[in-house]
Amino acid sequence: xxxxxxxxxxxxxxxxxxxxxxxxxxxxxxxxxxxxxxxxxxxxxxxxxxxxxxxxxxxxxxxxxxxxxxxxxxxxxxxxxxxxxxxxxxxxxxxxxxxxxxxxxxxxxxxxxxxxxxxxxxxxxxxxxxxx
Length: 132
Known about the structure:
There is one protein chain. This protein is mainly β. It has one domain: Immunoglobulin-like (Sandwich). The protein is built from no helices and nine strands. The protein has strands spanning 7-11, 14-22, 34-44, 50-61, 66-72, 80-81, 86-95, 99-110, 115-126. Strands 4, 5, 6, 8 and 9 form a five-stranded antiparallel sheet that branches. The protein is elongated, with a radius of gyration of 16 Å. It starts with 6 loop residues before the first strand and ends in a 6-residue tail after the last strand.
C-alpha cells in the first residue's frame, strides 16, 4: 500500500510530512480508547547536515485537554540527515476521545552546532463514526 502524506510543513528547506491512520483493531471505543498510527517523513532539502535532537508534541483531545510530550529524538533514534536525505518513522497516539489533533516541532542541530526548530504540521485524529 502506497502511503499518502496528507499533511506537510516546511521550515528552512526541511520538510516534515505526516500520514495518519485510525487503527480500529487497537481501539476499544466501548472502553473509551481510540488509537491512531502516524508515519512521519523528514526530508532534508537544505545545504546543511542536520541531526534530530528533540521533539515536542502538542496533543489535544475532543474535550480540549492538551498533553505536551517532549523527549530526545524519535522512537529511540537521533538520525543525522545529509543534504538530500530523508528519515521515516512510525509511531502511535492513543486518546480517550474519538477525535483530537497533533502538532509540534523537532529541534535539529546544524553542522555549526546551532539549533533549528522545524515545525511538525497540524493533523487531525478522527475515528470513523460507528453505528450504535
